[in-house]
Amino acid sequence: MSHYCDLAPGHPWHGPYHDDEYGFPVAGDTALFERLVLEINQAGLSWLTVLKKREAFRRAFDGFDVDRVAAFGEADRARLLGDAGIIRNRLKVAAVIHNAGVIQALRDAHGSFAGWLDHHHPMTKDEWVKLFRRTFRFTGPEIVGEFLMSTGYLPGAHREDCPVHQRILALGPAWQKA
């Protein structure tokens, strides 16, 4: 089985994501929401497809501004479903808009999306999956696992001998504090 650390280095799309984002701690609501949106949209597709469409997602979802996306109405849904730059899946679009509203409520209760994650940390992947399924839409085991690994809440984003792993350890990811 190959690992992302074997495939990504030197690749024009995977390389920068692997080297500078994947597994690094993420705290801001906009960045966390972006990662959740991208993971939801990756379901059933390749991560390369999502990375190539990332800028189009950023434009389509107003820079991943939680409040703006939570306020999207039917005209916005129609616009998104007609946008060839993103993944036009009705369930995924609906989940993104719904989940933005959920993040607003989490922010009200915990100060931020990261505050909510920190409140529940540490948990096993299975516990996280159950929590995400109760809280969000379109969040199965793969989506939740990748979201949490990519944002530093679960280990496993990089092999231990990967140089990026050492850079992440120096930042003190949440999983390291468990």
UniProtKB/TrEMBL annotation:
This protein's name: DNA-3-methyladenine glycosylase I
Organism ancestry: Bacteria, Pseudomonadati, Pseudomonadota, Gammaproteobacteria, Oceanospirillales
Gene3D superfamilies: Hypothetical protein, domain 2
Superkingdom of this protein's organism: Bacteria
Pfam hit, one: Adenine_glyco
InterPro entries: Adenine_glyco, DNA-3mA_glycosylase, DNA_glycosylase
